[in-house]
Amino acid sequence: MTGATAPLVTVVIPAYNAEKTLAETLRSVSSQSYDKLEILVVDDGSRDSTFELASDYGLTDRRVRVLHQENGGVARARNRGIQEARGPYIAPVDADDTWHPSKIELQLQALRKFPDGQGVAYNWYAAIDENGIIFGHSRPVMHQGNIFEPLLRENFIGNGSTPLMPRAEILRCGGYDAGLRDNGAEGCEDLKLYLALAETLPFALVPDFLTGYRFTKGNMSSNAYRMLKSHALVMAPIIERYPQLARDIRTAEFNTASWYFKKAFLDDDYAQLKKLAPMMVRKYSLQLIVHGVQQGWRQTKRQGIRMARHVLGKPSRPKKRFAAEIPQTGTAFSDRFTAIPAEQAISPTSSRTAGHE
């Protein structure tokens, strides 16, 4: 998509006390190979130098516009940016996450398969620590088209910094639900919006790890108990509308709780474990027993198959491979960036300095 046919994409960056990571996030957005961008930083009542940092960055990239509001949470900050947006597409990114330089370009290409580009594009992500070092990645699922039921069973998008979405459809769905924060259940606003969009829109996958999703102690995704409460509130009305999916949703809730428990255990996060352990025993005692039996059976089965192949002299089955390079633990997310071809490079006279109206 180039020239007059290229749509303006509005990048919305909610930022609260983000002075340590915002510049890195802005650089990853400014460096996109697709440069017809409007970049809105929404300062959500920060008490540090977030507003000044973003304003200074806007002096070197005229696509950047900085908005300020009283602290109201990430959902209100994102909604403010969406309301102010000029572009027909919204690409949110949190102020501590980063993007691969080709993310927006590849997502727009993926949306071409839909009439008038009316759909949502997503990709896989690499999990990074406070220093931008990869320590894991999302499961490389291949869901496309109608993804509503698969998304109910597993939030495979996994974060708020990945999708590219039509602005009009976001507004039709009511945007991000700020009421979750008001109920002490902030965390699943993005999942709730994705599910609302998935009820009526097709989703397109870009099969690569294009988002660097940062996990740090104290960030929202680290507060397991609050996230589980948020997940339950999001799913309750969906169970009422789709009672036939209640069992799948309950399984998803258990899997989500198990994921947070395992993460807290591996991180030696005893405060989280003290909250999660009694809750899981009280709420999921039967599921825990079944899960333990299933895990034991799967492990025994895998070991049996490996032993049988060894005895019969058969080679092990190769692991499923993807065209995308799997993120390597211990490497920097930025090391995955390849040089942008010269014909795609942004010149000093491009929109980076000229702006887009």
UniProtKB/TrEMBL annotation:
Superkingdom per UniProt: Bacteria
Annotated Glycosyltransferase 2-like domain residues: 10-144
Stretches assigned to coiled coil: none
CDD domains (alphabetical): Glyco_tranf_GTA_type (cd00761)
Designated name of the protein: Glycosyltransferase
Organism: Rhizobium ruizarguesonis
